Amino acid sequence: MQTHSPPRLAPAPTRLLQRLHAAREPLHAAVIADYFERHPPASEAERLRVAERCREDLSSHLAQLAAALQLGDAEVFAAYLRWLQSVLASRCLAVAHTADALKVARDWIEVHIQDAGVADVLALLEHGIAALSAAESGVGLVLAEPGAPALAMSQSLLAGERAGAEAQVLAAMREGAALVDVSVDLLQPALYHVGALWQQNRITVAQEHLATSIAQTAMVTGFAAADMAPPNGRTAAFACVQDNLHTLGLRMVSDAFELAGWDVSFLGADVPNRDLVDFCDAERPELLGLSVSMPPQLPLLRALIERLRAELGNAAPQVVVGGLLVSQLEAAAHTLGADAWFRDVREAMAAAST
Q1: Which CATH architecture has domain 14-134?
Q2: Is 152 helix (H, G, I), strand (E, B) or coil?
Q3: What CATH topology corresponds to 148-225?
Q4: pLDDT digits (tens, 9 = 90+) for 250-291
Q5: pTM assigned to the model
Q6: Within 13 Å of residue 277, how many CA atoms lie on the same side as its CB?
Q7: N or C: where does the chain have the smaller number of CB atoms within 10 Å of the terminal CB?
C-alpha cells in the first residue's frame, strides 16, 4: 500500500460518536444495497450469506473508524487498513469492495449526519479510500522468518507437538536461559511467526489456535521447572482489558512477576472496567498490568485508567500496559495515561522496577 499522510484529527465529541453508532443499521443497509446493485446475487441463499459477511466487515471498519475518532489519531484507522489490505491480498481478494463500502459510508454520512465534527469523519474516510485505491492488488506480506530456534518452535506448535515444544523450552532453560528469556527470545517470535502465517493465509484459524494451546502448555512446563525467588512483599494484578480475549502474552508477564517474588493475581481475559476498578479497590495491588490487542480497546483502556485514578486517588495502582498493539500504534498508546508501556516481558519487569 502506498503511503498517504493521515489527516490531523481532534478527539471526536461524544455526541458525534453516538450519532455514528446510531447510524450503523442504515449504513449497513446502504452498503449492502450498493453491493447487490453492483453484484446481483445468484440465489436467496447467496444474498443472505453475502449480506451477513458485508455486515460483519462494515462493523469492523466502523469500530476501527470510531476508535481513531475517539482518540483523535488517524493512524489508528490507517494501520487497520494496511493490515486489512495485506490480509486481502494474501487471499487474492481485491480491496475494491472495501473501498466501495467506505465510499458509500462517506456519502451517507455526508448527507445524513449534521455535526460540526463530521468533517473529520469524512476526511478520515477519504484518506482510507485513497489509500485502498492506491494499493496494488495481489501484493501480500513478505514474511520474515525468525531465527532457527524460534522457527523450530513454531513448527512444533503448528504440528501440535506438545512434547517437542516442552523439550525446547526445557533445553533452553538447562542451557542457562531464564523463563523470561524463553518467553521473549523463543516463544514470542515463534508465535508472531504463526500469526504472520495466518495473515498470509498459509495456515487456518484452527492451526493458529492449536499453536497457542501448545505454547500455553509449554509455558506451564517451563514455569514448573523455573527457580522461584523468595517473596519480595510486592503485589501485582494482570488482566486483559474489556473485549480483549488474548491472554497468552499477559500470562508470560504474570508468570515472570510471580517467579521474581511478587504476589500475583492473574484475572484473565475480557475483564469489565467496573469489575477491575472494584478489584483494585478491594485488593489494592501495587501494580496493575493490562493487555490490549485491538485499537477499539484503546478508548476502553483510557476510560479505565481515568476511572481508577478518579475513584481510588492515591490508592490507585501503577498502571503498565503491553501487547503487540503498543509497538504498532506507539504514538496513540502513549496518550492514554498509563504509567509505563512494554512490548515484552523484559520491558514489563524494567517498568515495574522504576
Answers
A1: Orthogonal Bundle (1.10)
A2: helix
A3: 1.10.1240
A4: 999 999 999 999 999 999 999 999 999 999 999 999 999 999
A5: 0.83
A6: 16
A7: C
